[in-house]
Amino acid sequence: MTETLQFKRHRRLRSSKAMRDLVRENQVNKDDLIYPLFVVEGEHVKNEVPSMPGVFQLSLDYLAAEMAELQALGIKAVILFGVPNEKDELGTGAFVDQGIVQKAIREIKDKAPEMLVIADTCLCEFTSHGHCGVIHHEDVANDESLELLAKTALSQAKAGADIIAPSNMMDGFVAAIRRALDEAGFKNIPIMSYAVKYASAFYGPFRDAADSAPQFGDRKTYQMDPANRLEALREAESDMEEGADFLIVKPAMSYLDIVRDVRNQFNAPIVAYNVSGEYSMVKAAAQNGWINERELVMEKLTAMKRAGADLIITYFSKDVAKWLAE
Ligand code: PBG
């Protein structure tokens, strides 16, 4: 009976670990990882974020040790988020020379000059209302917000940031920032645009970590509707035209179709942002003993690579670097 059956033997290529290693199509590398850091004012501050076990808000005095740890693990890039002491209507703390992010950039560049410092460029952590721009009539005013965003990017570049990563989803932010950087002589600083950023419930824990929850309303007039796919391509296209060097898709896990669409359409490096809620869900399940954390994390990050991501921003970076070294 079996002798006459015609079928393909796919299991031939799965017969041993060595065979599987030989034919593996995608893998996560240390060089793909970008580690997010939350920096706070004060001294000796190392606050674990309650909804993100293993993630801390750090004061500047901890940054040298943090960089040494990351470099020992082989992690070469960080993305910075600032938690200021004071907030105001305009988010002034985002663009002053003595802002928390500017100070952190200088400290990292002083202690670990080879570390690539990516500055998240947004106002929501610095505004009293928690929105990502200037408020007029209970909504974020696009063009006025662009001016403040360009100022923020410029002050981050002056402080020594290697890459500017605008995340506020105003229309024209890449154009405004590119012009401001070029006019100030920062022609060689790339823009990693949060081109495709959905209005997502997966950002909940981040808003605890960065204290950036909107005080009224939501972000749905500027971040994208999770139901939309073609809109992602329109967003990515305009950012490419305006001069983006990298395209971020965010969140990652539930948006791998979008990562693939953007990968197929554009030839810039694609970054998947494995966001806070995606991290917290895995941590919570792992703490309950319901899943195998290591296998699950590697599986989902590999899926991001398979979907077409070149780089991954993830709170799991340190764990992944350790696992890869074993
Ligand atoms: C700032 C910003 C947010 C995240 C990255 N940059 C929050 C938001 O848009 O509300 C979320 C990151 C995460 O959840 O890990 N605008």
Automatic annotation (TrEMBL):
Gene3D superfamilies hit by this protein: Aldolase class I
Cofactor dependency: Zn(2+)
Active-site residues from the entry: 197 (schiff-base intermediate with substrate), 250 (schiff-base intermediate with substrate)
Keywords: Heme biosynthesis, Lyase, Magnesium, Metal-binding, Porphyrin biosynthesis, Zinc
CDD domains: ALAD_PBGS (cd00384)
GO BP terms: heme biosynthetic process
Binding site for Mg(2+): 235
EC number from the UniProt entry: 4.2.1.24
Reaction(s) catalysed by this chain's protein: 2 5-aminolevulinate = porphobilinogen + 2 H2O + H(+)
Keyword Amino-acid biosynthesis on entry: no
Listed Pfam families: ALAD
Binding site for 5-aminolevulinate 1: 207, 219
Sequence positions that bind Zn(2+): 122, 124, 132
Keyword Lyase annotated: yes
Residue sites binding 5-aminolevulinate 2 per the record: 276, 315
Family: Belongs to the ALAD family.
NCBIfam families linked to this entry: PRK09283.1
Listed name of the protein: Delta-aminolevulinic acid dehydratase
Organism field: Lentibacillus populi
